[in-house]
Amino acid sequence: MSIVRPFALLFVAGLASAAESSDAPWMVSVTEENDKFTPTNKDRYYTQGLKVSINRGDNLFFSVTQEINTPADTVNPPSVSPPYTDQPYSGALYFGCGYGRVLERGGRRDSMFSVEAKFGVIGPSAGGETVQNKFHQLIGTPESVGWGTQLPD
Questions:
Q1: What mean pLDDT do residues 124-143 have?
Q2: What mean pLDDT value characterizes the chain?
Q3: Which residues sit opposite 86 in a β-bridge?
Q4: CA atoms within 13 A of residue 37's CA, in its CB half-sphere
Q5: Per residue, what are the HEC states of 30-89?
Q6: pLDDT at 36 over 90
Q7: Backbone phi, psi, residue 22, to 5°
Q8: Dihedral of CA 111/115/121/122: which sign?
Q9: Burial of 136 (0-12, 13-18, 19+ CB in 10 A)
Q10: Out of 23-37, 103-117, 123-137, which region has the weakest mean confidence (pLDDT)?
Q11: Long-range interactions of 113-120: CB distance < 8 A, separation 24+
């Protein structure tokens, strides 16, 4: 997965430049979304997402995100590719940098303004197949068999 190196370098470079310019407190957040946590425990459509964000007290944030999508049937190998009416196998990996601020409205802090730029890849370089099938090995469920039909880079 050679595409990960540029993302890691961008992430570290963004953090280094941000650290020089502010004494604001930092906060790290991790968001994991996986259909393993649903009652049906079935891989389909948006099946997994992982986001690691670093937020500064001055409203700047940096993030690295991976998302994985699969069709409804991940156990039976597709003949060529999933039907056009179904979600294709796909992975996305991207770096984000943005600005976000909670807005005050009449004493209430109940809305947020944010803007974010993202740079990334889709396809095999995003590592979706590896992450999903290694996770399936870890939890003892069948691997998804159609990753050979995923969207290209």
A1: 91
A2: 83
A3: none
A4: 7
A5: EEEEEHHHCCCCCCCEEEEEEEEEEEECCCEEEEEEEEEEECCCCCCCCCCCCCCCCCCC
A6: no
A7: -150, 145
A8: positive
A9: middle
A10: 23-37
A11: 116/61, 116/63, 118/65, 118/94, 119/10, 119/94, 119/95, 120/7, 120/65, 120/92, 120/93, 120/94, 120/95
The CA distances from residue 107 to 22, 56, 103, 111, 129, in Å, are 28, 23, 10, 12, 47
How far the first Cα of the chain sits from its last, in Å, is 12
Place of tokens 């159609």: 146
At 133, is the pLDDT very low, low, confident or very high (cuts 50, 70, 90)? very high
